[in-house]
Amino acid sequence: MKYGMRRLIALAVTLAGVAAGSACGHTPGNPQAAPTARAQQTRVLGEYLVTLVARDSVKAIVDLYGQFGIKGIQDLGHNIFLVTLTEDPGPAKMEQLRGGNAHIQAVQPNFVYGTRGPRNAQ
Amino acid sequence: MKALLRSIIAIAALVGVALTLLNQVAAVSFEPVGTGAYVAGEVLVKFKPVFSAQDRTATVAARGHAVLANLNQPGWVQVKVGTGQTMTQVLAAYQNDPSVEYAQPNYIYHTTAVPNDTQYGQLWAFKNTGQTVNNSLTQPPSSPIYSTNNPGAPGNDMGIEKSWDHITDCSSIVVAVVDTGVKYDQEDLAANMWNGGSSFPNHGFDFVNNDNDPKDPNGHGTHVAGIIGASGNNSLGATGVCWKASIMAVRVMDTTGSGTTANIVQGINFAVSHGAKVINMSLGGGGGFDSAFSDAITNAQTNDVVIVVAAGNDGVNNDINGNDFFPCNFTQPNLICVAALDQSYALANFSNWGATSVDVGAPGTNILSTWAGTNAVISDDLTSGWTFATTTSGGWAFGTVNVGGTLTPSLLDPPTYSSGQYNNSTDDRAYKAFNLAGVNAAVWQVSEAINVANGDYFRTRYSSAGGDPFSGGTLVSEDTGVATFPNIYAVEFDILGCISASCSLGFQLQSDATQQSATQSRGVAITRFKINTLTFSTTSYNTIDGTSMATPEAAGLATMLRAYNPQYTFADVVNAITKGGRATTSLAGKTTTGKAIDVMSSLAYINPPTGLTATVQ
Amino acid sequence: MAAAVVLAVGLSACGGGGGGSSPPARSVALAWEANHESGVNRAGGGYQVSISGQPTIDVPYTSGPAAPTSTTVLLQPGSYTVTVRAYAALDSQGGNAGSLSAPSQSLTVNVP
Q1: Residue B110: pLDDT band with limits 50, 70, 90
Q2: What angle do CA C94, C100, C106 make, to 5 degrees?
Q3: pLDDT digit string (tens) for C31-58?
Q4: Is A27 near chain B, with CB under 8 Å?
Q5: CB-side neighbour CA atoms (13 Å) of B82
Q6: Is residue C6 part of a domain?
Q7: Does domain B141-372+539-604 have CATH number 3.30.460.40?
């Protein structure tokens, strides 16, 4: 996977029944807001890292999580994909849906890290 | 007859004594030479005073050796030895010669290397003379610095100067700075950046913008890089642990110093696959166990890469449930987690610690290093100059909020904030324009308390064209169904897109017709407003604190160790750093080792041999 | 008579020997993994082999890319504890007083 040639995988599959995204946090018709960078926010809302068992199972992501509206799937290498959702069901729901799926090895939030603590120290 | 017998007995006794003495001398075993870097093929011999120069020459010649010089000390000669004998054998032979008083190698001595960098006297981490670290080089200028134990206690430093007699060039080892990027053309870094060839002409990669330019718009990564490998002895600025280095810039943190698992994992894997053998990550977070991040560290371990990470700056014990700070709290054996020490080697008041999660300490207060440019701060006192607009009544107003016992000027919506409610069906806006012309990076910092009901919205926007940013500007954040009162949170936004002579920044509270509870519709208070700007420069330096600064000192040491010992594995490096450190009282019970890193001690550390076998034949 | 006395003295001074038969000493080949420190593998470096009840054996670097990582000793029948330590010239103060590693894990050698 060459860096700099990373692809946002276009969704050729028709996302039938994808929710328009009326959950808390979004105004229908408006672009999704950049998440508020709160001190207490430890993950990026709507973003998950999905690890596939096999690289050719990206469809499994769409099949499983398409109900939340997939805005993008980015290949990070090592069978890991960054999935951006229109509606964020929460990590517990994401894991619950994953359970037993033969194509998806793991799903987790896209956690947030920083170079600074709450003090002035770097 | 009796006289003859007495003579015989006396002679026998003398012979016996002589033989006994011979046995005693023969029993002397010369300690094997772990004793000195010395001139191969030469020894220094001190003969007993009774033996003349002629005797000494003859004794030496009888062994097939030659006298090179008579030293200007009675009895001492410099001897050229032949081949075929080890130093131990030669020395043992001379030592057991009855004409010799003492024999030793001809040792080699070095002067202690001290670099000529202009700011070296401020680098207490490398040489603590009890100096006062000043704020003459801070960004923004004259910023306050860590005052506790400044000056500190002399001698509390990394013990690095002696190591520079033995190695200053670590450039054979690529060290990756996984951070906010690196100002790779900074005057003290430009010569020490990784050569990524035509594929990576800017010495690394930017996973925030997904491009080939990991230039640092924040400064943090540049500072870290300088601690590891700012050019040493070039009559400029600072020096790093390594005077010469090969620093790979891997940008995974954005302008505000924030990054995600996705970026970090890509950054680690990039560093590993492009030859880095040491990775510095002065970053952390506590969102929970991050499997993808952990897997990336394991991938690095598989590829024999040492990863050095920061303990964190919350002043807490990382070992306590709920305080987990990753990546420090990961447990892979290729990971070293570093706490921060002040100038008297007390634990810095902001430094995290952990008897099982944090490994060592290193200097982390008032650390001077390279920086990405000049900083400036635009502070607004939130008392005037703002445009307020509303579609109903009231809306935004100037007011005050009690912040930590102090009435603080604030922007409030509604004006009766904390006791009142904002209007239904309202669109309230507050905005103001700021001149950001000429800067290269800008971070908008706001402290806010937000209570807006579900279906109502609090938004921030900017417009580089001035005017109302809610008419055609760029959305920065949007919140609904949030209740933070009474807590006030500091948030930061990268407003690169607003850099202009008239950057308008604004707040909007927009509500629908639904009547909400008083608590849900309490409103918004903006209690602090700042814009931090950075203007790129190749000659900037900064003095700052953090476990972020302690970490690259250990990473620099790891790089030096691998350069000095090309056969070293990650396990050897970790052992040399953790076991070769210096016992430090403030770290006892707060780190796995109770030690501060000590460069010279680690350089001289020798791992115990392994794999011992015996075969009886 | 004088010569006989000297011979006797000489014999006693050099210690005794001879007497009844004992099992022959066996040759024991000791080997270990090479250390990765560059100082161990150049002039001034090497290994020390400690065998219980025996003088320490020095295995210094002589030439080539690495110090030797083996030695052969003669041991009488019995049980011995063996450890190896590595050394180099550089000391923790930056001088040449040398550094010595901690011992390796010990090995029990039984010579029949």
Answers
A1: low
A2: 160
A3: 999 999 999 999 999 999 999 999 999 9
A4: yes
A5: 7
A6: no
A7: no
Specify which residues B615 forms β-bridges with: C29
Q: Which of B257, B292, B491 sits opposite A108 (nearest CB)?
A: B292
What average pLDDT score do residues B590-616 get? 98
pLDDT of residue B95: 87
Using CA atoms, how far residue B173 sits from B274, B555, B556, B560, in Å, is: 12, 11, 10, 8
Q: What is the pLDDT of residues B494-537, one digit of tens each?
A: 999 999 999 999 999 999 999 888 888 999 999 999 999 999 99
Domain contains C19 = no
What is the model's pTM? 0.82
- Write down the domain spans for chain A: 43-111
Tokens of B558: 């790891």
* Chains B and A, touching by 3 or more CB pairs within 8 angstroms: yes
Helices in chain A by DSSP H: which ranges? 58-65, 91-98
The residue range of the domain holding C75 is 24-111
- Domain A43-111: CATH architecture, name and number where available: 2-Layer Sandwich (3.30)
Chains C and B touch (3+ CB pairs under 8 A): yes
Which backbone phi and psi does B526 adopt, to 5 degrees? -105, 110
> Domain residues of chain B, as ranges?
1-30, 31-107, 141-372+539-604, 377-536
Whether B547 has its CB under 8 Å from any CB of chain A: the answer is: yes
Query: Left if phi > 0, otherwise alpha if psi is -120 to 50, otherwise beta: which for B516?
Result: beta
pLDDT > 90? residue B428? yes
Could you write out the three-class secondary structure of B179-243? ECCCCCCCCCCHHHECCECCCECCCEEECCCCECCCCCCCCHHHHHHHHHHCCCCCCCCCCCCCC
Q: How many Å apart are CA B554 and CA B228, to the nearest integer? A: 8
Q: What angle do CA B496, B282, B144 make, to 5 degrees?
A: 70
Instruction: Choose from B313, B377, B479 for mutation: most chain A CBs within 10 A.
Output: B313
- Name the CATH superfamily housing domain B31-107: Peptidase S8 propeptide/proteinase inhibitor I9 (3.30.70.80)
CATH topology of domain B377-536: Jelly Rolls (2.60.120)
d(CA A103, CA A56): 9
**If 0-12 CB within 10 Å is exposed, 13-18 middle and 19+ buried, where does residue A90 land?**
exposed
User: Two tokens at B308?
Assistant: 């050095």
B323 touches A at CB < 8 Å: no
- Measured torsion, CA atoms of residues B216, B219, B224, B230, in degrees rounded to the nearest 10: 80
Contact B236, B118 (CB under 8 A): yes
Is any Cβ of chain B less than 8 angstroms from the Cβ of A120?
yes
Residues of chain C contacting residue B88, judged by C-beta atoms under 8 Å apart: 58, 60
Do residue C98 and residue B36 have CB atoms under 8 angstroms apart?
yes
Q: Does any domain span residue C11?
A: no
Residue B251 in contact with partner chain A when CB distance is under 8 A:
no
Q: Is B584 on the interface with A (CB under 8 A)?
A: no
Spatial separation of the C-alpha atoms in residues B505 and B460, rounded to whole Å: 7
What is the number of other CB atoms lying within 10 angstroms of the CB of residue C24? 9
CB B538 within 8 A of CB B187: yes
B65: its two tokens: 């050796």
In a domain, C10, yes or no: no
CATH of the domain at C67: 2.60.40
Contact C92 B615 (CB under 8 A): no
Interface membership of B12 toward C (CB under 8 Å): yes
Residue of B nearest to C30 (CA): B614
- Residue B332: Cβ within 10 Å count: 13
Which of B427, B428, B438 is CA-nearest to residue B503? B438
CB contact under 8 A, B489 and A40: yes
Chain B positions in Cβ-Cβ contact with residue A116 (cut-off 8 Å): 220, 257, 313, 546, 548
Per CB-CB distance under 8 Å, the chain B contacts of C60 are 32-33, 86-88
